[in-house]
Specification:
With 231 residues, the protein is an all-alpha fold. The chain has eight helices and two strands. The mean pLDDT is 85.
């Protein structure tokens, strides 16, 4: 496969054009979905696994909840794979069952239980809860900092505004108060620069999460796509 080595000019162009690229907003949508999806996966899977896997030793008599919990985990991985493929430009493999229900329920169940990809799918989607919380914090903090600094010229003299900047200890650990228009304009200029840094940070984070999903999808089990024969 042929790859292109980035040049300083191409890197600078990619950095400066990030706010106006359509993919940036797809990346942002992907990052914004991590928290609600992670919460949904957690809320659905943890009770199902707690109840279902508790019946696993009694699989012959009472194992349907356990099988249902495993299938739910595979199903949520299928959803996560679909969301990633829709929003992030990555090549996602599809690791599906080697047996189908046409081979018999027992054969399919055995394949589900013995496939390491089943458990990798469950671990991956449960980890999305932590990823979602971390992503939510990054998006909230970074976007708030940019919004506050960029709007400084409009709000610096508002009675409820408080543009107080803590200084590092090597500057006596004091604070600097922005209370004039030139200072607010300077702060806004920093905010614009911070906007470019922030947007590229979002793109980098989406790239990392997309590549992680791409790697996991090589081995994690997902549901087979629906075909007319299975509709």
């Amino acid at each position: 496969m042929r790859t292109t080595t980035p040049t300083p000019r191409s890197v600078a162009t990619a950095f400066l054009t990030a706010p106006i690229r359509f993919q940036t907003y797809k990346n942002l949508a992907y990052l914004a979905l991590q928290f609600p999806l992670g919460m949904a996966y957690f809320v659905l899977l943890v009770p199902a696994l707690a109840f279902g896997l508790g019946t696993l030793p009694l699989l012959v008599l009472f194992g349907l909840p356990a099988i249902g919990a495993l299938l739910l985990g595979v199903g949520t991985m299928t959803v996560d794979r679909a969301v990633t493929g829709l929003l992030i430009p990555v090549e996602l493999e599809r690791h599906t069952a080697s047996a189908s229900l046409d081979d018999g329920v027992l054969t399919y169940t055995k394949d589900l239980l013995l496939d390491p990809g089943t458990y990798l799918s469950i671990v991956f989607v449960l980890a999305k809860f932590v990823v979602g919380v971390a992503t939510f914090v990054v998006l909230t903090v970074s976007s708030t900092l940019v919004a506050v600094t960029v709007t400084a010229p409009l709000l610096y003299d508002h009675p409820t505004a408080n543009y107080t900047i803590p200084l590092p200890s090597w500057l006596n650990g004091t604070t600097y108060v922005v209370d004039t228009l030139p200072e607010a304009l300077a702060l806004a200029a920093l905010g614009v620069a911070g906007l470019f840094v922030t947007v590229n940070l979002w793109n980098a984070l989406a790239w990392v999460l997309g590549r992680a999903t791409e790697l996991v999808c090589r081995y994690a089990r997902v549901l087979a796509p629906m075909t007319p024969d299975h509709a």
